[in-house]
Amino acid sequence: MKPAVFDYYKPKTIDEALSLLDRFGQDAKIISGGQSLIPMMNMRLARPEVVIDINGLNELSYIRFSDSQMQIGGLTRHYMIEESAALKKACPMLSEGIKWVGHSQIRSLGTIGGSLVHADPTAELPVILTALDGQVKVLSSEGERVITPDEFFLTYMTTTIQPNEILVEVTLPQIPARTGHAIDEFALRRGDFAIVLAAASVTLDEEGKIAKASLCLGGVDGVPVKLDQVTAQLIGEKPEDGVIASCCEAIESLIEPESDIHASGEYRRDLSVTLSRRVLKRAAERAAIAAPSGG
User: Fold this and answer.
1) I need a labelling partner for 95 at 20 to 30 A (CA). Which of 44, 82, 176, 255 fits?
2) What are phi and psi of 23, to 5 degrees?
């Protein structure tokens, strides 16, 4: 199928893009990489009257670091994140997880902002943002807003971004010492959206006990699910297999995944427990390797 007829604009500045959004409101859609919007338009699942192409706004494509956080422009392509040696060192979960996003052709065009606004709960970037307690910055002609994941993601493919706003930046906190990350997923084919995915972060103290931990699941609800009830049980414990397995047993009662043509809810629940054990164990092992000698 072909998309419905639409008007096309390609602003040269952010102010021009915001002016177009003010002018057309809900009739307009922003396009950056187009890897989510174009297929939906072709299938007539999205029928915007106006498409605003922001690919020329190069000032929204960057990777920056400060003492407290990492900043990634909303128009930054997936492949730029994948190839960044600095990000691989500073944020291994993002560097590792981005390789699960589609195929290389998709990663060459897709953007971090586009993926987050699309808000597919089985996509990697929403889960990573949630697991790492990141934030997004959105901009309108009225000013900017900084939004946490629990405020940003509403339900399946729905966020709180307003029709007159553009996602301009993603921020992630700097990773503490003695911290390890892991992300894993199961999909029917490589490059497909995951049936379930899990991401974990574990920080060890000087005695090798868990000082901080984060666990997030995708594919089990309309938004990424952060399981603080599970990781709270790990604090102060040695990251032994039995301890991690015991804590992960609680996941079965904490999630209620739906069944669809790809998998039953029961299968998703079992898979969630398996993947959670795996990523927590792997994250803890990597945290131990990252610990300073003698610490």
Assistant:
1) 255
2) -70, -45
Helices (H) and strands (E) in the chain, counts: 13, 14
8 A C-beta contact, residue 198 and residue 278? yes
Regarding pTM above 0.70, the answer is yes
Where b means 16+ CB within 10 Å and e means fewer, 110-127 reads bbbbbbbbbbbbbbbbbb
The confidence band for 291, taking pLDDT boundaries of 50, 70 and 90, is confident
Q: What is the DSSP letter of 82?
A: H
As a whole number of angstroms, the distance between CA 114 and CA 101 comes to 13
How far are the Cα atoms of 26, 127, 149, 186, 213 from residue 131, in angstroms, in the given order? 31, 6, 9, 18, 9
Q: CB burial class (10 A; 0-12, 13-18, 19+) of residue 242?
A: exposed
**Domains, the chain, ordered by start:** 7-53 (3.30.43.10), 58-173 (3.30.465.10), 179-290 (3.30.390.50)
**Partner residues linked to 180 by β-bridges:** 202
Check residues 283 and 4 and name the one with the higher pLDDT.
Answer: 283
Nearest CA to 215 out of 187, 172, 190, 180 is that of 180
Dihedral sign for Cα 21, 37, 105, 166, please: positive
C-alpha to C-alpha distance for 263 and 195, rounded to whole angstroms: 7
Q: Which one, of 102, 118, 110, 113, lies nearest residue 35 by Cα?
A: 110
Inform me whether the pLDDT recorded for 51 exceeds 70.
Answer: yes
CA-to-CA distance for 206 and 212, rounded, in angstroms? 12
* Count, residues in the chain: 295
Spacing of C-alpha 268 from chain mean position: 19
Element (H, E) at 86: helix 85-90
Residue position matching structure tokens 């979960």: 93
Reported as a single tens digit per residue, the pLDDT across 2-23 is 888 999 999 999 999 999 999 9
